[in-house]
TrEMBL record, chain A:
<protein>
    <submittedName>
        <fullName>Uncharacterized protein</fullName>
    </submittedName>
</protein>
<dbReference type="GO" id="GO:0005672">
    <property type="term" value="C:transcription factor TFIIA complex"/>
</dbReference>
<dbReference type="Pfam" id="PF03153">
    <property type="entry name" value="TFIIA"/>
</dbReference>
<keyword id="KW-0539">Nucleus</keyword>
<comment type="similarity">
    <text>Belongs to the TFIIA subunit 1 family.</text>
</comment>
<feature type="compositionally biased region" description="Gly residues">
    <location>
        <begin position="143"/>
        <end position="157"/>
    </location>
</feature>
<feature type="region of interest" description="Disordered">
    <location>
        <begin position="126"/>
        <end position="168"/>
    </location>
</feature>
<keyword id="KW-0804">Transcription</keyword>
<dbReference type="InterPro" id="IPR004855">
    <property type="entry name" value="TFIIA_asu/bsu"/>
</dbReference>
TrEMBL record, chain B:
<feature type="domain" description="Transcription initiation factor IIA gamma subunit C-terminal">
    <location>
        <begin position="60"/>
        <end position="108"/>
    </location>
</feature>
<feature type="domain" description="Transcription initiation factor IIA gamma subunit N-terminal">
    <location>
        <begin position="4"/>
        <end position="49"/>
    </location>
</feature>
<dbReference type="Pfam" id="PF02268">
    <property type="entry name" value="TFIIA_gamma_N"/>
</dbReference>
<dbReference type="GO" id="GO:0005672">
    <property type="term" value="C:transcription factor TFIIA complex"/>
</dbReference>
<protein>
    <recommendedName>
        <fullName>Transcription initiation factor IIA subunit 2</fullName>
    </recommendedName>
</protein>
<keyword id="KW-0539">Nucleus</keyword>
<dbReference type="Pfam" id="PF02751">
    <property type="entry name" value="TFIIA_gamma_C"/>
</dbReference>
<keyword id="KW-0804">Transcription</keyword>
<dbReference type="InterPro" id="IPR009083">
    <property type="entry name" value="TFIIA_a-hlx"/>
</dbReference>
Amino acid sequence: MEPEHSVSSVYRSVIDDVVSHIKPDFVGEGVDEAVLDELRVLWETKLTQSGALDPVPASAPTGVAYGTAAPQLGYPYAGAGMAYMGGSSAAAAHQHSGALKRKLEETGSWPTGVVPAKHAAHAGVIPQQDGPADEPSVVRAAGGAGSSAGKAGGGGSEDAEEGDDPAEKLDTLSDVESDEAEEDKEYENVVVAQFDKVTRTKNKWKCTLKDGVMQLNGRDILFNSASGEMQF
Amino acid sequence: MAATQLYRQSRLGDSLVEALDVLVEAEKITPELAMKVLAEFDASFLKALQSKVRARTTFRGQLDTYRFCDNVWTFIMSDTSFRTVASQHSSIGYTPEVVLGKVKMVCVDAKLVEKDAAEQQA
């Protein structure tokens, strides 16, 4: 197997990249650099809790050995991050989840989803791109993160929030709508990618994808390109 | 929505949104600054995927539902198997992954992502 960046090393390089690029904006707005450090700690901690990032080994820094990302930083915040999230602050974080989404929706600058807002509202479906799930019934792959936060995620559509019992809700929907309701629920296995080509012959579908992020059986896998065959 | 925002749905993006949420709620940063961070993330993760990832995946499965809306394909699949090799020219070191449960696949038009990314750089 030739050398390949591990998923964790790619993720760490993205975190480093974002933090270093955004620094001038923090300085420009007069935000203390400690807040930027806090952002990194929170981000890494939540990612580790989700299971997508391998925890940094205490002694051997193998996790960053073959990444190109500034390993000299040494991720000094990993330990502190755990402590930070260990106590009541973790609960507080969950309670506040969704607030950013709400605020940004008020300012009109927040993307409402992959699907245009009009269509999404019609279907009662807001594709979840951020934050914990809006529906209390959702089971999260990683456990813990977000499972208690369902009710706090007030940013979704009103349609999606009404009715606590999903089964009861489904009864009132037509076949088509229940398909879309199925799309709305949070999946443990998710693939996010770009498509080059999607074709169909009778019930056989073929697609070629690129630059994908897969979350399968709790593990993250990245691909440069992908091809798939599906039977409808 | 700019097509470049698709990766905010990944766990890496989702974790960042949650982290920013905490800071905005605590009024340590403004929502506007949070949006700038997310835009930076969009560009950074896309670049990392393009430059650092060589793996190639093939998959087969049952397609339960499909939808094409606003240049986004959404597939819900079941009984899907994924096979990932480390690079285009390698057949060893593959990772077979059989997913018994459902898989949701969200695919944004690659041409749109390219276009939006170019516009944002300009």
